[in-house]
Predict the structure.
Amino acid sequence: MKTLAIFGAGPGMGRATARRFGKEGYQVALVARRADRLSSFVAELTAEGVAARAFPADLNDIDAHPRLLADVGPVDVAVINGSLDLARLKPVRDLDVETLRAVFETVVLAPVSLTRLMLPGMLERGSGALLYGFGSSAKNPEPMLAGGGAAQASLRNYVLALRADLAGTGVTAAGITIGALIRDSDAEKLFDTSAGARRGFDPERVDPADLAEMLWGMAATGEPAEQVVGA
């Protein structure tokens, strides 16, 4: 049975992706900080016939990654999401070195660490997919999101360079750049209680099942290098 590992598994795209790959016979490893929520995801997926396991972990603790991956076991497809502390989202003129360093540690270095641990096994087997999620500021600079945008742009560059380097190995790297709110996600819930929502601003929203279908297609075919969702 092949294994899908979702790092940073949440109630939106993460849960939908677990469900989509589960229908294809994958067992699913869900990794995130909150053990209680992961347990609820596992119970829900199990009731739907998906073999799922929970691995509570703080992905920002890079030193613990080897032990985490040893517990998860061989991974055939990985969905890797870096975390971004909203308190560190500063306008570009207010962005300082310490803030940017902290953002890079969680948005770039943690995903790179996970990638380096899983990649040798995939190369040895001659198959695998490493899939990443980016915010729209990874491609479209936004002054109010400068720190997150700079870090995600760096991760996106790394992923596309890795993809080029992996050509012909049977292993692929690809990403989804999302410029919309994902329904049922933590970000959507946070926005719906924000000042922006109270002022009547209603951004585009995307169904997580559609994102999960994109991820499945990228893992199954190796194409395309990047999907872009939303404006």
Remarks:
- The longest helix spans residues 97-125.
